[in-house]
Amino acid sequence: MSRIVVPSLPPARPSRLFFSNAMELHDLPRAAPAPSPTLAQLLKRVGDARKEATGDGGETPVHHSALDVDPSDASLEPRSLPFVLQFNNLTYSVKVRRKVTLSSLLPRSRSRLGSAAVEDPVAGESLFTRSKVLLNDISGEARDGEILAVLGASGSGKSTLVDALANRIAKGSLKGSVTLNGEALESRLLKVISAYVMQDDLLFPMLTVEETLMFAAEFRLPRTLSKSKKRMRVQALIDQLGLRNAAKTVIGDEGHRGVSGGERRRVSIGTDIIHDPIILFLDEPTSGLDSTSAYMVVKVLQRIAQSGSIVVMTVHQPSYRILGLLDRLLFLSRGQTVYSGSPSSLPLFFSEFGHPIPENENRTEFALDLIRELEGSPGGTKSLVEFNKSWQSMKQATGNSEPDRNGLSLKEAISASISRGKLVSGATNDVSPTSMVPTFANPFWIEMAVLSKRSVTNSRRMPELFGIRLGAVLITGFILATMFWQLDNSPKGVQERLGFFAFAMSTTFYTCADALPVFLQERYIFMRETAYNAYRRSSYVLSHSLTALPSLVFLSLAFSATTFFAVGLDGGLSGFLFYFFIILASFWAGSSFVTFLSGVVPHVMLGYTIVVAILAYFLLFSGFFINRDRIPPYWIWFHYLSLVKYPYEGVLQNEFQDPAKCFVKGVQIFDNTPLGAVPETVKLRLLQSISSTLGMNITASTCLTTGTDILQQQGVTDLSKWSCLWVTVAWGFLFRILFYISLLLGSKNKRR
Length: 752
Prior knowledge:
Strand order of the largest sheet: 6-7-8-3-9-10
Radius of gyration: 35 Å
Shape: elongated
Helix content: 40-55%
Strand content: 5-15%
Largest sheet: 6 strands, mixed
Structural class: alpha/beta
Number of strands: 12
């Protein structure tokens, strides 16, 4: 199977790897020795200088990375702008269930068993739970221009440590400190200056590599950058990631051939570094890749680090070539540090520990094998942990590890890095002392437009999804139309109309169940993008609603046109238009309800089970099977919560609203009774007898039941048909609001 390539106009290739720098660091005004300027003042100067560079301040100038700067350029300042991410005494524990037996719960058994019984819970624990330490007093540092690799066996705490550094653990659960250049990192600031690449490649399958990165640029780069410069940034990033040959290839999934695993991983990295972050966290970026692809990924990370970023990554077992690209190693074993230092110091460290590394053997493989061997021994890795502490103490005593920051504080370093071109989405002229960089790069209407365009592009390349849904609606409409073909106005026709309306309205809700997997498939993409403020959750909800409407209108028109005239419903053109609107409102409410459930339910199969069950309850309490006045008082509340009730009552009123239309005449009163089988002459004599008894003249043509009477018999009297329409629409908006609330509460993406 060949790759799927989406043709498009060839983009203009940028002449440089990154943006051209419109303002270098020497353009920054020098701060007076005293008092020290605030960050807001520094950013104001940066903004003023950018305005001068662009002429009118309307655009943020494009910039170079450190890789693209000519060292011979005399206009550049030689001084460096170091960033040091330090973490000290990080400790994190979770509560897990304790295995408890019946004998351990009985006081007599516990006293008799003594030490063999379950241990008494300590402070903070209970008889049924115990604390499991995932991080135990972890300390270290990572610097810009370097890659810090966290190594260890599965379950050693690698991903937990990266989550702790990336502020993905809830406050109060993590003990210790994380600082950047000696200053504590606030959550809001860290979101803007950093990026987190998850272990799984969370990408839209039917977008090309170039489109994926371009949408990321639309989200993360400020609107002051022109479209052409955003495209230049994307083209430069494609070259940096080594994806030029795959730029026009779709990402692909199980059913569509796309890019390779290594290319997919590099695209995942690219979506998160499009704004050139200062700190980059990666969880197992080489997992599942062959050695060549893994090496290329780490080579890309090395270039990113050399451009002035701090790169922190977890890696399971690096190859010899990858080890040569790493600058710092941090080995973990069951949440404790067993080694922290450079790869070149590994032989000396293990030699002094008493386990020298043999020649021609991979250092990391030897270290990991030794750690696993110690973990299986009675004493565990305690001896190695203690030796590492003494080793670190000796290193600190012989040399000063504190970097020279040239007197730059964190605020000064960030503002100066912004002026040199780092942190593109942080480019701002905001002088508020409480706001260093904007929370979001774009206003919500731009976010909505980009989200809508991405959703439509991805859906347009999978037309089979909408085709299957349209086919289901047309087949259902065809079956109903042929089953209830041209109903008459007899008592049996009335009953058949009621059955048709109940089934038709419930079917519109059941066909909305296919919206369930849509968000469930996008959930983790949404969480990854919103975790670092790519866009607002409200923008996602609104765009999600807007992109769903065109398909709902088309489905409603198809179902209405298929059934209304074939069944012989009443009302003419106005009746058809209302029938179409109530079907559309039903699709809208049903789609919103299922979308809300997708934000609450984590699994597709569980979601389908809940949707089918709840929709069955809605139909049961709609008023078709049992009239409203016959529903028990303790269940009447569910009748008013039923989504099927309101469109069902609306179409009934649309059909039976004409008071002059007769549905039961003369002898038809005996239909649907045992007397319906007697001869016509007997029915006429019975009708004359009833007439004389009642003292009124009832003939074979006398109208006995009108549409108004049917509505009263069905208990459809409390709302008008237009009120039913608006209530159905309101249900749809309510569930969209609940969907938004579920996204706010359920997408924190933090460990507790």
